[in-house]
Write a structure and sequence with these properties.
The protein has a nine-stranded mixed beta sheet with strand order 2-1-11-10-12-13-14-15-16. Strands 4-3-5-6-7 form a five-stranded parallel beta sheet, with helices on both faces. Strands 17, 18, 20, 21 and 22 form a five-stranded antiparallel beta sheet that branches. About 50% of the residues are buried. By secondary structure, the protein is α/β, with parallel strands linked by helices. It has a domain of about 100 residues: GMP Synthetase, Chain A, domain 3 (2-Layer Sandwich). Helix 4 packs across helix 5, helix 9 crosses helix 10 and helix 12 packs across helix 13. It is built from 17 helices and 27 strands. It catalyses: a medium-chain fatty acid + ATP + CoA = a medium-chain fatty acyl-CoA + AMP + diphosphate.
Length: about 600
């Protein structure tokens, strides 16, 4: 892997007059200042109830995260107004380190912005497909696209040639940036992509047909004037997979993520410029935009990242011991694996705040992590299309199995099929109110698919596609994706509650619950179970009886899995979420 050779620092004279939340109005100033009360716990607000009454922020006509946030932190940093932690702290799998200040981020990203304009001939609105692992240049490309007004399309390095071809063709990307490992896959499909005009490669050596990213940056000027982008102008596109059809192009504006993710950084992550924050998400997913770019940098926090080509529990635990990481966010699947390593054997250097997102976390895992580390896990719920929809916040009672209460970004309700709010305690569709005022932190559209965009809305609400319950105290409880709910003999059964019951048994390492056809009940609950090592050679028929009896004891008996199949592993998406749809198709004999 080639890292930038130049490490010089420069003094830049330009400083934006707009604040890091782009607030020039009285109402905006109140939003930013009224909630800076610093109690011991939390840092950025007094309690959850104080968040409910936040004034609506003023959204300026022009906003650019690079100019209005990063450059402001650069100016603050040079004036000695923030902590000494770097803006970006990168560690390789060989324990090499790079630490960049906001000033250095500004210098290198301005160089790269000039490369995009001068070498790649890109103009505002052009699209850039970026496929890089967790290397410092990934962050520079993010910022350079902001500075030039080009639209970033992140992708994971696990994409196949078919995936890459689809993304290049439907997005009409003009520029492609990747590394040596992905170059052969790209070269196999780029002749079929007529809009693609430039390719940049992060590599130690030259490759025919590619510009060398390090070389062209080394000779580029660091003088660049950031584009004044409109708040509603497209900023990034994420390809979002559904249960059917090709992935959709989810468009976010400079406002929706650049401003909207302040809610995540300030209130859910509860970051300040004195925090070192590690989010383990892969660079191809919206969670990286959430928690490795916008959320922490709105607060001036240090973004810590470990290259870690493959997920490794020991590496994670040792890294938490070796570095002053105060806030840590990873997937529920990762926590399930981490508790099996007994984290009580490790002395974390500075860890105070643990979070998870991506899918529901089992109460048993939360309890085990707390038992072994003394730390709670704060759950967050959101989508590529949104910022944080709901979560557990510091100072709030954590109710295992619930993902907390609505975030200050949205009015979250549970509605029926007609779009009406249902009574508390009643299952329905999790939804966000969009009328009379559409939240600025909601996605713009599924590009080129107006019908699919329209399908997300019902009456006054945006439909998340998830089913849930809101209790009398406003806590939200996940039932399942609308497609995952099981209808058996007149009962509605959410897969997650059955999975929660199963994982409480010592034999279960992981499970996935889906519907299975039944001639009498129409469909029944079936569980695919991955056994823990000590149970793998036990009598399977006896284990099935034990697990069925266990589920009947810990939840309503009608929910128990009438069918159980033991498997070595569960099918998962590239981001680690269980693909229940694949198991369901197998059960029903669907293609």
């Amino acid at each position: 892997m080639q890292l930038l050779a130049v490490r010089c620092r420069v003094i830049l004279t330009h400083a934006s007059k707009r604040s890091c939340y782009a607030l020039n109005t009285e109402s905006g100033t109140q939003w930013q200042q009224a909630h800076r009360s610093k109690t011991t716990n939390p840092n950025n607000f007094t309690d959850y109830d104080s968040l409910v009454h936040l004034p609506k922020p003023h959204i300026p006509p022009l906003f650019n995260f690079a100019k209005d946030v990063l450059d402001v932190w650069e100016t603050t940093e040079k004036a000695g107004g923030k902590s000494s932690w770097p803006a970006l702290w990168w560690v390789s799998d060989r324990n090499e380190e790079i630490r960049w200040s906001f000033e250095e981020l500004g210098y290198y990203s301005r160089q790269l912005a000039n490369v995009l304009i001068d070498e790649c001939s890109l103009v505002r609105g052009d699209r850039v497909l970026l496929i890089l692992p967790r290397v410092p240049e990934w962050w520079l490309v993010n910022i350079a696209c902001l500075r030039t007004g080009t639209v970033l399309i992140p992708g994971t390095s696990q994409l196949t040639t078919r995936d890459i071809l689809h993304r290049l063709q439907v997005s009409q990307a003009k520029c492609l940036i990747t590394d040596e490992s992905m170059a052969p896959l790209m070269e196999a499909v780029t002749p079929q992509c007529p809009t693609l005009t430039s390719k940049l490669l992060l590599s130690k050596k030259e490759r025919l047909g590619w510009g060398n990213l390090t070389a062209v940056m080394g000779s580029a000027s660091a003088e660049h004037v950031c584009v004044d982008t409109r708040s509603d102008e497209p900023m990034t596109i994420f390809f979002t997979s559904g249960t059917t059809g090709s992935p959709k192009m989810t468009v976010h504006s400079h406002c929706s993520y650049g401003l909207g993710l302040t809610v995540n950084g300030r209130y859910w992550l509860d970051l300040t410029d004195g925090d070192v924050f590690w989010n383990t998400s892969d660079t191809g997913w919206a969670k990286s935009a959430w928690s490795s770019v916008f959320s922490p940098w709105t607060q001036g926090a240090c973004v810590f990242t470990h290259h870690m080509p493959r997920f490794n529990t020991t590496t994670i635990l040792k890294t938490l011991c070796r570095y002053p990481i105060s806030t840590f966010c990873t997937a529920p699947t990762a926590y399930r694996m981490l508790v099996q390593e007994d984290p009580s054997r490790f002395q974390f250097q500075a860890l105070e705040h643990c979070l998870c997102a991506g899918e529901p976390i089992n109460p048993e895992v939360m309890s085990k992590w707390r038992e072994l580390t003394g730390l709670d896990i704060y759950e967050g719920y959101g989508q590529t299309e949104t910022v944080l929809i709901a979560g557990t916040f510091k100072g709030m009672e954590i109710r295992p199995g619930s993902f907390g209460k609505a975030s200050p970004a949205y009015d979250v309700q549970v509605i029926n099929e007609e779009g009406n709010i249902v009574a508390r305690g009643t299952e329905g569709n999790l939804a966000i109110r969009v009328k009379p005022d559409r939240p600025f932190s909601l996605f713009t559209e599924y590009m080129g698919e107006p019908e699919k965009t329209a399908d997300c809305f019902r009456g006054d609400f945006y439909l998340t596609g998830d089913r849930g319950i809101m209790d009398q105290d406003g806590y939200l409880w996940f039932v399942g994706r609308a497609d995952d709910v099981i209808l058996s003999a007149g009962y509605r059964i959410g897969p997650f509650e059955v999975e929660n019951a199963l994982i409480e048994h010592d034999a279960v390492a992981e499970s996935a619950v889906v519907s299975s056809p039944d001639p009498v009940r129409g469909e029944v609950v079936k569980a695919f179970v991955v056994l823990t090592s000590e149970y793998k050679h036990r009598d399977q028929n006896e284990l099935i009886r034990q697990l069925q009896t266990h589920v009947k004891k810990v939840t309503a008996p009608y929910k128990y899995p009438r069918k159980i199949e033991f498997v070595d592993q569960l099918p998962k998406t590239m981001s680690g979420k269980i693909r229940r749809v694949e198991l369901r198709k197998k059960e029903w004999g669907l293609p």
